[in-house]
Amino acid sequence: MHDVLIIGGGNAALCAALMAREAGASVLLLESAPREWRGGNSQHTRNLRCMHDEPQDVLLDAYPEQEFWQDLLKVTGGNTDEELARVVIRASSSCRPWMRRHGVRFQPALAGTLHLSRTNAFFMGGGKALVNAYYRSAGNLGVQVRYDAPVDSLELADGRFVAAFVKGERIEARACVLASGGFESNREWLREAWGRNERGEWPADNFLIRGTRFNQGVLLKHMMAQGSDIIGDPTQAHCVAIDARAPLYDGGIVTRVDAVSLGVMVNREAVRFYDEGEDFWPKRYAIWGRLVALQPGQIGYCVIDSKAVGRFMPPVFPGVQADTLPELARALGLDQHRFMQTLNDYNAACRVGNFDHTVLDDCHTEGLAPAKSHWARPLDLPPYYGYALRPGITFTYLGLKTDARARVHFGGVASENLFVAGEMMAGNVLGKGYTAGVGMSIGTAFGRIAGSEAARAALKKADHAVA
Ligand SMILES: Cc1cc2nc3c(=O)[nH]c(=O)nc-3n(C[C@H](O)[C@H](O)[C@H](O)COP(=O)(O)OP(=O)(O)OC[C@H]3O[C@@H](n4cnc5c(N)ncnc54)[C@H](O)[C@@H]3O)c2cc1C
């Protein structure tokens, strides 16, 4: 029998597997994806958010605990568990030497609109390189990995893990870590969670999934049915406005359009609907998917002029280009008259001061609803560009309630040998909202805790069995 069974094959699962193995446990990791698609959403990532009190290798200046905490408090609107959030924040300051030991390399942030060089450490080669490094290290340490191994149910006894089932095969272990992601890839569940809106639309039918197709929420649903304590609202998710031409799954980061704060966003009726310059893009990009989801037809159009070009990361698909704004409206299929009214109102309302996209500058609108609070400049330099955007789900926040030891709970009672990490418990820290890089901070912190705790539970149990 294995000491520790890890269910999932992304960052949280791999951190847990490595920690459990380092603690001396025998480890089997079950990944539902085939080898070439291993690594879940983690393969699409680029960075993690790290607390630090002074400049550290790739990180500039300082990003103290209190500032990280305040950022989290702000984006979640207080819908977070402070104890667990602080566990994540503190762990983010000390995890990088451990990550390096397992082959992860870091690089400074690239230029662009994401203002992240102080707060986020970027993975050299992105999440794919991180995942590959962890699998390599796990293999070298003797962690057994099985691909094409989707777990569909667990055998539990009074809140204790006994065994997992993969295509009818029963696999026993002394302890188990659940790290099989959210339910973002399950379109039926998303449809059910979002329901039908007042216009009779099923908004989720127009969602695209930015990451893996394998996070179907099978174990999340199973654990709910088994009576484990649940946290989070099924409609809350990290949801970005992405290029409407993106594929249904695995479009990754290149389909994101980071130009919103540099231009204006209009809906299908050619009307603006939110302040594009409310705050820095890393603190706001994850609200735009939801904002677009609430618009008719779940579509929005980001419009920029040539002044914005070169100031944001170029997306993979080129924008629709036109030499005049009316021409752009026609090319985007928008009502030209309404579009021009919206753009003329916006242009006339701009009060341009000292434009600086790296600070919350004084370029704003006056007498316009909704306002654009920063970076407001008239769109007047051709050619103009437009991008049709759809809600792109990154990951859902519904998950298992846990504690600082990553234990799964049943009716308020902690399991002795069943632990949870990553997206499957991220909702404890992220009740709503998001700040860039915190997903990997949560998965790394809780993956490592869950792996250590699982090893401890398993080895204690093995000792008892021998005694
Ligand atoms: C495009 C994109 C970009 C992102 N960029 C960043 C970033 O730069 N920084 C950041 O912090 N976060 C980022 N995120 C979010 C980040 O990916 C997640 O927060 C993090 O990867 C979650 O790790 P995880 O291990 O919990 O989930 P995942 O990495 O998704 O792993 C879940 C694993 O479980 C497996 N699985 C699912 N069901 C089963 C089952 N029944 N049995 C067995 N295995 C199963 C899956 O195949 C997968 O391997 C990004 C996400 C996407 C989609």
Molecular structure report:
β7 and β8 form a beta hairpin. The chain is an alpha+beta fold. It has 2 domains: 268 residues, FAD/NAD(P)-binding domain (3-Layer(bba) Sandwich); 155 residues, Flavocytochrome C3, Chain A, domain 1. The radius of gyration is 23 Å and the shape is elongated. Strands 1, 2, 6, 7, 8, 9, 20 and 21 form an 8-stranded mixed sheet that branches. Strands 10, 12, 13, 14, 15 and 18 form a 6-stranded mixed sheet that branches. A 3-stranded antiparallel sheet has the order 3-5-4. The mean pLDDT is 95. The chain has 11 helices and 21 strands. α1 packs parallel to α4 and α1 runs parallel beside α11. 29% of the residues lie in helices and 21% in strands. Flavin-adenine dinucleotide binds next to α1, β3, α6, β18 and α11.
Q: Give the averaged pLDDT, no decimals.
A: 95
CATH superfamily of the largest domain: FAD/NAD(P)-binding domain
User: Can you tell me the residue ranges where pLDDT is under 50 for at least 5 consecutive residues?
Assistant: none
Radius of gyration, whole Å: 23 Å
Taken together, the total number of domains comes to: 2
What characterizes the major β-sheet? 8 strands, mixed
- The name CATH uses for the topology of the largest domain is FAD/NAD(P)-binding domain
Q: How many helices in DSSP terms? A: 11
Q: Which architecture of the largest domain would the CATH scheme give at its second level?
A: 3-Layer(bba) Sandwich
Bound molecules: flavin-adenine dinucleotide
**CATH secondary-structure class of the largest domain:** Alpha Beta
Strand composition percent: 15-25%
Binned, the helix content reads 25-40%
Number of separate strands? 21
Helix/strand/pairing category: alpha+beta
